[in-house]
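FAQ: What does a multi-protein file look like?

Like this. Sequence, then tokens, then the next protein.
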Amino acid sequence: MNSISESFSGQFQLEQQEKLLTLDSSKQQLTIGVPKEDFENETRVSLTPYTVKLFTEIGITVLVESGAGSASKYSDMEYSESGAQIVEQQKSVFKADILVKIAPPNTEQIGYLRKNQVLISSLNIKTLNQDYFNKLSKKKVTAIALEYIKDEGGIFPFVQFMSEITGQVAINIASDFLRKKKGKLLGRIAGNTPSEIIVIGAGEVARHTVDAAIKAGASIKVFDNSISRLKDFEKHFSTKIYTSILYPEILEKEFPRADIVIGALSENTIYNSMISKNLIKSMKKGSLVMDLTIDRRICFESSKLTSFNNPTVMSQGITHYGVPNIPSTVPRTASNVISNTFLQQFSSFQNYGSLNAFLKYDSNFRNGLYLYKGVLVHKGIGEIFNLPTQDINLIFAAF
């Protein structure tokens, strides 16, 4: 079963509905706000109408900004029929007890926040600075990052699902490119040499990309600068795949053979340099280079940041794809996955009856916490931006 399909989404939501409807909603009345995303190229929405319906049925008030779901093909009417209150002004949505959104709030939106409010969003730390955290701290808000929340299996569901979407979309794009531009299939046909794909990186995005490529029947070679990471990478696949350290002499041999080269660098991967323009230039004319994590770090020296409307550019005779935030190219699917994540977390939240109890006793959700009532409690963020932090366990020990 495809974990990011809408059929999975419906099954998951039905299971959560059974849990939610058995809860005592009188413990704590909540208002959840869903603002319209205005970050460039962000087309996803944090809650779908179906999830809103489940929340409103247990007494949670949901405020949805008009047009919040339009890019994901959800109308205001669908939200209204699900029990949401549609509001025209974004500032009104920010009156909610809990705000759920995709992109971190911008400066204007931070101004709308009030004391003791709860913010749940992605963090995308590469796009932020010290001033962002200082402004949130002054508002005395409690902030949770989607990327850091764990599930009961110790997995980061937001990261995993967005990586899965990115990998599948990348191989779909590669397949369409080969068919339209070179008249080739991505997969294997008896008597024909399969298309060759090189993947740079061995993290989550790379794993899902390779998984999709294997299913399509392509020939794949994976390069990384860590032997241990490559060994762990290989364990995920039932079939043997080619992996190698980033030796220059091997890259110089393999790049001219590749039809597609995909950059999928993980956050914890350190590369001394990007893949050089000379390597890209050595590829067959008309080949495709895809920088899947260009919004976080550039893999190729020749990479160009592109957009949904103009996704590719030519450089040295090679087509380059550099669209950031690839899950937003399939907003309906991505929104369903994100909404399921929120649904799962809030069903657990209701069991505790208050945010403090939820954060204190649910370690998986607490893992996403980086600000507690204005106090920075994430050591890693403090180190990156040279900000003081406090131990959240010591804070919770006081009550």
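And here is the next protein:
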Amino acid sequence: MSLKCNGLKTIISFSALSIILLLNSCNADKKNNEKAGDEVIAVINNEPVYYTDIDKQVKQQIFDELNRIYMIRQLALDETIDERLIEQEARKKSLSKSKYLEIYFQKYLDKDSITRFASYMQYDSFGINDLQRNIRTLSIHSEEGEKLLVEKYRKYLRNRLVDSLKAKGVIISKLKPPANFEIDLSELTVHYAGNLNASTSLIIISDFECEFCRKYDDIYKYLFRKYHSKIKLGFVNFSPYVSICARAAESAAKQNKFWEMHDQLFSGEQLPDTLKIFQIARQINLDMNKFKSDFYSKEVNDLLKNNSQKCIDIGLFATPTILVNDNVIFNSSSKDNIEKMIEEILTDNHKSKQQ
């Protein structure tokens, strides 16, 4: 009996020790992982706050800033490439860059070429702008104007030279834009239209009373008209306050006419007042008693407030925000950028189906 008990104690002790070691190991791994990938930014009463705790609250702002940094670097890289190409060409001829450029310019700086350049740029008709502090328009036949014309022509020649060097050079750029980040829409109220079975989605997180949302709405309508059979279009209300337009759209949604109301609300040049909203409701044949009840209801008010708060919780801060397949687009006003991403995803999907 004692042997069995001792044996049992040994087994229990060994098991307990194993668990302790395992827990210590897990904790050590956790601490190591935290130190390696997530630095502590603050400590509140011995409780650490990590960078990820902060970053998840400002995902979109960080994403936007990273894109701005990328654009600054891209401009600097473009300038560096231009300079290096000229420097390399100058070294081939054992010349300094300035001497090489001067010799190159002299080949083309004849009076006839400058005159043709002025005519092409229409400087002879409208004059030439001197962009110093206050804009002045100078005649190209004046001393200052002629000097400025030659300066602009030299810049034109330099750009032409760089283009020719790029055409025959080998340039590999490894500068990459920041990776897109995904937004989890599962807890948001999203109104869908288009091909509801499509695997590609274009989501607009918007505010009916936002100036830029209204300004860029034609871009999103164009994209939806072009791809309506291939993509699923979604709309999410996100506003700093519960607007009457958002109330109207959510109330119309309860009668399956969200998009009819949406289009009407965005179509006017000015924001509609309550009277106009009720006129729109009648025009799209809503049950007016139900619409009025929903429009003033606590349920619709709370839904909109909660939706906006959830948007903030997942790191959004601006409207309009555009998502293609849950990936945030940096430039929400660029039809070309949005369309390019849609096309890339549709092409990838097509290739996957063929394999």
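Q: Is there any per-entry metadata?
A: Some entries carry free-text notes. For the entry above: The chain has two domains: 60-168, 191-354.
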